[in-house]
Each structure stands twice: as C-alpha cells, then as structure tokens.
Amino acid sequence: MRRAIVVxxxxxxxxxxxxxxxxxxxxxxxxxxxxxxxFGTEEALEKIPDDCLxxxxxxxxxxxxxxxxxxxxxxxCLLGNEADVLDKYDFILRSDVDTFLTPSWNEFFPEKYTxxxxxxxxxDEVKEKITSISNQLKLNHxxxxxxxxxxYGKPNQIRSVCKLAVEVAEHLLTTEFRxxxxxxxxxxxxxxxxxSCEIAMNHLVSDIKVEAGKLDFDSTSQNFxxxxxxxxxxxxxxxxxxFQFSDGNYDHIQRNQLKIxxxxxxxxxxxxxxxxxxx
Length: 279
Hints:
Elements: E1 3-9, H1 13-28, E2 34-40, H2 42-45, E3 53-56, H3 73-76, E4 91-94, E5 99-101, E6 113-117, H4 124-136, E7 147-153, H5 155-176, H6 192-204, E8 208-210, E9 217-218, E10 230-232, H7 242-246, H8 263-274
Helix pairs in contact: 1-8, 5-6
C-alpha cells in the first residue's frame, strides 16, 4: 500500500513555512507508506527538502483570468503528464500546504472518495447559483454543498475531478467573475475553486464521504489529536494560527511546555520543530 500527499507550492515565504510544517508532521509520525509529492515553480522547489518528490510546474497563462487567480494552480498541477507519477499510488491526498498530519494518519485509509467539510455556501443565492451553473454546463448536481478543499481517494478519480473543476473554474472566471469580485460571504470570486470542485464532484463521483473530523479539522481545536488525521489552518489569530506563527509570535514558547495530545498544542509543537529541520 502506497500513499501520497500532493501539494502545490509557490515561491512565497509563508507558503514555504507552511509546507515545512506539513513535512515535519509526516516525519514526526514516523510514517512508512506515504510520500510527499510537490508540484511548484523552480524557485519554490529549490527550498523543498530533497527527500520529497519534486516536479516543476509552470502555471497556465491562458485564459488570462488564471494569471490573477493563483489558487487554480493547485488543481492544474494534477493534469499534466508530469502528474502521471501519481497513478502508481493506491491513494492520494490532494491538500493545501497549511496543514498537519497527526499519528492518526497512519491508520486512516479511505473507503470511498473522501473530503473534509467546507464553508463557502452560506446562502440560498449561492446554492442556486451553483445549481444554475451546473445546469448551464449540462452537469449533474446532486445537492451536496460545502465540500472541503482536501480530497482523498484513488488517483484517477481525483485527477478527473481536478480536470473538470479546472474547466468549470475557467467558465466562472471568464463569465460570472469577469467584471466583478462578488461579495463574501455571498457569491464570491475568491472561492471559485471551491465552487468548481463541488460542481465536478457532484457530477463525477457517485459516492462521496464527508469526514469533517478527519480531513480539514480545525487547528484551533482543543480536542485530542486521536481520530483527527489531517489538520487545516483557517484564517484566525487564535492558537494555532499560521499567521501568528509566521510572524514569530510563538517563538518564545518552549516545546516541552506543550501537551501534544491536544490538536492546537500539537500543531504548535510541530511548527516550532519545523524551524530546526536542516535539509
């Protein structure tokens, strides 16, 4: 059984810092079956440890709307020939870099296409928009909303979802959001990839499992890490905050003061440990 964590990284300090936390968490749990596959720009990959599998990815230049929407790269990078390397794995986890793995990852294998819980559909207007777009594109929407950004399953299925999601995103960016950003928390350009992936999954995947406790679990939680394999950092200044960590506001904390059986302390422990990694 072989698994891979698949991420896209740009040459931005915060993203490299976040990636190193994810990398350190995988090392910390002493996992034996999981690789980290990193797609990124040449400049970014130079800052990634060499025991990761690294593949240069050139962000698409067309349509021009993609140039101003970098989130699309986390989907596009799974489409090219260089991503065929993913097909050798039994399962892949398509993840953002601002995440951590806990020891529970070592026993977490998906029974079906599995996602976390998203938070981008708050109004009936947005639901109706998503359904309407699906109908326009002649895609079947089965009524599943707020599907998380992390996808876990068979490589061919996840890559198929990403391919269709990119096509949907192109439609949204060149029509719905061509002249407007929209307005959060309503219909909003900033979460185009979330809308697109939802539409693609509803159309392509007949059986989706939403695991809110196992994927994209909140890094501020005071729960035990047990049963929460994948932790995601949301936009917050509460402990654990990726922003506070990046700004150095946790540097005074000693790792031996932390109770790593709890999620937020575990994330902070791993983050502080990541600063000691030499590669």
